[in-house]
Amino acid sequence: MELKTFKWNQDADGIVTLTWDDPDRTMNVLSSGAMKDIAAAIEKIAGDASIKGAIITSGKANGFCAGAALDEMEGNAGGTGAAKSEEDRIRDRFNGVMQFNLLLRKLETCGKPIVAAINGLALGGGLEVTLACHYRVVADNPKIQLGLPESRVGLLPGGGGTQRLPRLIGAAGALPLIMQGGSLDPQKAATQKVVHKVVPADQLIAEAKRWIKETPDPVQPWDKKGFVVPGGLPNDKGTSTVFTMGNALYRKTTYNNYPAQRYILSCVYEGLSVPIDAGLRIEARYFTKLLGDPASRNMIRSLFLSMQDLGKGARRPAGVPAMQVKKLGILGAGMMGAGIAYVSAQAGMQVVLLDRTAEDAEKGKAYSAKLIDGQIAKGRATEQKKQKVLSAIKTTADYADLKGCDLIIEAVFENREVKADVTKKAEAQIDAKSVFGSNTSTLPITGLAEASVRPDNFIGIHFFSPVDKMQLVEIIMGKKTGDYALAMAIDYVKQIKKTPIVVNDSRGFYTSRCFGTYVGEGQEMLGEGIAPAIIDNVGRMTGMPRGPLELADDVALDLAYKVREQTKKDLGDKYEAGAADKLIETMVAKLGRYGRKNGKGFYDYPTGGGKKRLWPGLKDIVKYTVTSTTPEYVDELKKRFLYRQAIEAARCFEEKVVTDPREADVGAILGWGFAPYTGGPLSIIDSVGTKTFVEECDRLAQKYGKRFLPGRLLRDMAEKGETFYGRFKPESKKAA
Q1: Active site includes 462?
Q2: Helix 631-654 crosses helix 690-704 at what angle (to 10 degrees)?
Q3: For residue 571, what is the DSSP state?
């Protein structure tokens, strides 16, 4: 028997150790090759009387199995054979899902005791393999995670996860793990009875062999006569409440936008009511429905494949040697600078945190201490980690301390003159090969680079707040920015384990420009007389993390006002005022309502941390003419929010601000929380169909204003029936 992804070792006691170690991948996944090997191994184990049992473990240092090979799944989601009917494609998908389910069913019914010796993370299909084993022992390492994260990319566990886990720990314990896509460390997994035992890593195989020799049991609990589901069946008094509350919580938190979570509830409810073989078929049917759902395909592409590509540096220029930032200088110790200092020091860099005074710089350093103290209180960090991070941050007011920095990141006020001043002072101290990055969210990089004596090494590095939580970094190329600066910026972002997107210079760049349309559309609606509660509630219903008026307050109304005033100054007669201009001017300049920062914006923020409420005085500025809605009216508002952002993303593409559809979609989801279930703004256009999207935008433009008018690129694509991912193939943009 020849295995490609597993190594077979049979000892003198007749115990086989199957070591999973795919030579073509850095992490084991359930590829077609792995499944073929598992099938061959099961047949050999079941049919050879000399084999007393088997152990499945991993030869990878970083994990047991990370789950399904989503690159293969994404390619096959539409079914095979272009000439096949839709019915045949659905049948192919179902049969493909059942193939894995039947494989694991053969594993657990092969008549021999099978042990999962889990020496690394086991996620998704990887955990499902272990659930089909009769005994699970895991290494005592808190970094190991076990979970079913499929729901986070628009899927559900398709290898029996919705059937075996509830049968092990009950619906009440299983549903939160499956629906939220969370994970457990070994100790928590043992406490919740997901695994049987936790042992030191060097005793893992020994414990597996001990169980096979001393207490083997080759029959799963659910295959034994008289098996009772922990907690009871779905219609039992206590368990029925679990599903009632679960459904209510799902509706409240997702607004029914995520079919995967809805189907998970159905899989568990229906599956626990029947024998496991029928339950596995139920799961496969729902999984098949998701594979055919555009939302799931878009989520897989954007939230897994594209994010993975970009995180690995897909847009890094070829031919530039890999670099590592050892010493980083940060200009400005405010909220952004302090956050950048924390993530950089945590990544092992020496950080120089500079502000106008040493005292101000120390305040920025204190932010790192505060974050780690919070982690220590929750048992997620130690005092040693705190001291290590803090010792890596040097505070100063002296620009001479920037000598030897590989990279400078400027994070001072959004003022061109202030930024020019610190640029000149910093560049007087750094080497010719050092790169200067500006953390600006709106000011064009090419203009800021005019203050630099080395514009080829001047680049935009735009972080999002709070830096420690937000995963995106927007890298902006000025007209003179060179490949060396781009490569260093991408390598730095990889060092701090965030996802970079690369965009070209433009006012507002990509993320700020598109995000502004969401906030702006909310203000347009307010100007039309739509009650603010309706606006923010519908905003959340679209899948955005917060309502547009809430977000405007969070970002700060006075900042929006300052940016607008700077834009007016820069554009002169070319500036076109919108309906929101007068509203923001009244709120900021006349009423001093700056947003959450001073407790007064569209909302009032009580001192002492009380619950915010809409400012009653809004009705004195805007007359409310719409105070109730119908489902059709809500759908229209949702479309305005989503399409307004999508059309701006398309304009950015037409203007070559963004040139890769992956970056447009991933940047939208990670940068400003664009509805993840859509896969991103360009995925919306591709899913709707460019022709249909353009026709609908023309309707919206006629009714609400020319901001909805499609550009030349969209109209050209509509005529040709093209999609963004078809016309602008991401594969051609991958670095060598």
Answers
A1: yes
A2: 110
A3: H
Alpha helices in 509-630 (DSSP H): 511-527, 532-541, 548-555, 557-571, 579-585, 618-621
CATH number of the 511-633 domain: 1.10.1040.50
User: Domain residue spans in the chain?
Assistant: 6-292, 327-508, 511-633
> What pLDDT, on the 0 to 100 scale, is given for residue 578?
72
Look at the alpha carbons of 221, 225, 229, 231 in this order and tell me if their dihedral is positive or negative: negative
Angle between helices 276-291 and 259-271 (to 10 degrees): 170
Q: Are 28 and 62 in contact (CB under 8 A)?
A: no
What is the three-state SS of 51-106?
CCEEEEEECCCCCCECCECHHHHHHHCCCCCCCCCHHHHHHHHHHHHHHHHHHHHH
Half-sphere exposure of 170 (CA within 13 A, CB side): 14
- Point out the catalytic residue in the list 93, 105, 152, 462: 462
What topology does CATH give the domain 6-292? 2-enoyl-CoA Hydratase; Chain A, domain 1 (3.90.226)
Per-residue pLDDT tens digits for 155-191: 999 999 999 999 999 999 999 999 999 999 999 999 9
**Are 519 and 547 in contact, with CB atoms under 8 Å apart?**
no
Q: How far apart are CA 653 and CA 513, in angstroms?
A: 12
What's the start-to-end Cα distance of the chain, in Å? 37
How high is the mean pLDDT of the chain? 93
Residue 489's pLDDT band, with cuts at 50, 70 and 90, is: very high
Element (H, E) at 666: helix 661-672
- Rounded (10°) angle between helices 557-571 and 548-555: 80
Residue 733: the pLDDT is 52
pLDDT value at residue 736: 29
| Cα 40 to Cα 591: distance, rounded to the nearest angstrom | 74
d(Cα 343, Cα 389) in Å, to the nearest integer?
A: 9
Q: What is the pLDDT of residues 72-112, one digit of tens each?
A: 765 554 444 456 788 898 999 999 999 999 999 999 999 99
CA distance 307 to 540: 24
Secondary structure of 140-184 in HEC code, one letter for each residue: CCCCCCEECHHHHHCCCCCCCHHHHHHHHHCHHHHHHHHHHCCEE
Residue 362, φ and ψ in degrees, nearest 5: -65, -35
- Give the bridge partners for 220, in sequence order: none
Q: Which residues contact 39 (CB under 8 A, 6 or more apart)?
A: 103, 106
**Contact predicate 407/430, CB 8 Å:** no
Residue 217 near residue 113 (C-beta atoms within 8 A): yes
Instruction: Give the chain's largest Cα–Cα span.
Output: 87
43-53: pLDDT as tens digits: 999 999 999 99
Identity (one letter) of the amino acid at 475? I
Cross-strand pairs, 70: none
CB 623 within 8 A of CB 529: yes
Stretch 384-390: mean pLDDT, rounded? 96
Other C-beta atoms closer than 10 Å to the C-beta of 152 total: 18
Q: E strands, 287-399, where?
A: 327-331, 350-354, 393-396
Q: The tokens of 13 are what?
A: 């006691």
The CATH architecture one would assign to domain 327-508 is 3-Layer(aba) Sandwich (3.40)
d(CA 494, CA 344) in angstroms, rounded, equals 11
| CA separation for the pair 333, 356 (Å, rounded) | 9
Q: Are strands 197-199 and 393-396 parallel, antiparallel or unpaired?
A: unpaired
Q: 469 and 504 in contact (C-beta within 8 Å)?
A: no
**Phi-psi region at 260: left, alpha or beta (left = phi > 0; alpha = psi -120 to 50):** alpha
Number of alpha carbons in the 13 Å side-chain half-sphere of residue 457: 17
